[in-house]
Amino acid sequence: MGAVKVIINKELKVAFNSLLIYIAYTAFLCVTGFVCWFSGKNIFSSGQASLSNLFNVFYWTLFFLIPALTMKSISEERKDGTFELLFSKPIKTWQLIMGKFFAILLQVVICLALTLPYYITIASLGNVDHAVGFCGYLGLILVCGCYISIGMFASSLTPNTIVAFFITFAIEIGFVVLFEFIAELWGSGFMAALFTYLSIGEHFDAIPRGVIDTKDLIYFISVIIIFLALARHYICKNRF
């Protein structure tokens, strides 16, 4: 685990010495702040202080933010030719992947921590269930873990960061929109149930309401493991 910690520290140092992370944070807070407080569909549009509306705004904003954070994770290493230098050290491929994954996840957690004033404001204006608030943030972190693993897989496919961004975005659309749409087309039966299960929204929707189901946790962990394994496969494939 020592190598993983070194990679995490290195990735965080690089990220926070770059202007991109501050632009991403600023854009996230501006978009969520506007939608939450000033838009026609603000969090009080239902007539009450709603945590579910708050987490829904975060959910969709992170959908667009994560590809920007992950697009350079592996692509840039391939483009700059630094893989050879990394693997000349006693670092295994899985350690590299886990280090980069947790570094990006920590960046997202920090981003979510910056939204705590939103949560505190809502809590001060009405009665909120703090357990539901905890579940909402946990659900967002799990969803982000899936997006990050997808982004790292996409980044492992190409040295072009822009291409990696759009591949990530396309796969996200599949999990968030397309699978649910296909399930509705089937209506009922095995195929409808299958595509419903594959939809990220199906597993996220209940968590901000305080319902944590084992099958949802298994789903998120499985998606993360599968895409990180695919990323590892393509990294190993391109080392030779």
Average pLDDT works out at 85
The backbone outline, from C-alpha atoms, is: globular
Number of domains: 1
Number of strands: 0
- H/I helix tally: 12
Radius of gyration: 19 Å
* Secondary-structure element string: HHHHHHHHHHHH
Class of secondary structure makeup: mainly alpha
Strand content is under 5%
The major beta sheet can be summarized as:
none
Low-pLDDT runs of 5+ residues are none
- Separation of termini? 25 Å
Q: What is the helical fraction, as a range of percent?
A: over 70%
Membrane topology: Multi-pass membrane protein
InterPro entries: ABC-2_transporter_component (IPR051449)
Protein name: ABC transporter permease
Main location: membrane
Would you mind describing this structure in some detail?
The protein has 240 residues and is an all-alpha fold. It has one domain (2-237). The protein contains twelve helices and no strands. Helix 8 runs parallel beside helix 12 (214-237). The radius of gyration is 19 Å and the shape is globular.
List keywords for this structure.
single chain, 240 residues, mainly alpha, 0% strand, globular, ABC transporter permease
Secondary structure elements and pairings:
Blueprint: H1 2-16, H2 19-37, H3 51-70, H4 75-80, H5 83-87, H6 93-113, H7 116-125, H8 130-157, H9 161-186, H10 190-198, H11 200-204, H12 214-237
Helix pairs in contact: 1-6, 2-3, 3-8, 3-9, 6-8, 6-12, 8-9, 8-12, 9-10
Protein name: ABC transporter permease
Subcellular location: Cell membrane
Organism: Butyricimonas virosa
Question: How would you concisely characterize the structure shown here?
Answer:
This protein has helices at residues 2-16, 19-37, 51-70, 75-80, 83-87, 93-113, 116-125, 130-157, 161-186, 190-198, 200-204, 214-237. It has 240 residues and is mostly helical.
